[in-house]
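Quick one, probably user error.
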């Protein structure tokens, strides 16, 4: 289950980054910094969420 969690969060992260890259590519120069900051926040969100879910799934597996 922990490996499945990792694969799911990799897919979520990469699809979000690809979507943001497409939106940034279509935007003008003025919002490039905003997209850069949003991509950083997206990365932090995915990393923290993966860590929390990994910990919860690992904690659940050690109890049983």
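Nope, works fine. Designed sequence:
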């Amino acid at each position: 289950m922990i490996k499945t969690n990792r694969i799911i969060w990799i897919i979520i992260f990469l699809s979000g980054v690809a979507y943001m890259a497409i939106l940034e590519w279509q935007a003008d120069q003025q919002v490039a910094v905003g997209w850069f900051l949003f991509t950083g926040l997206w990365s932090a969100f995915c990393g923290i969420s993966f860590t929390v879910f990994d910990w919860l799934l690992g904690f659940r597996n050690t109890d049983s």
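The radius of gyration is 15 Å.
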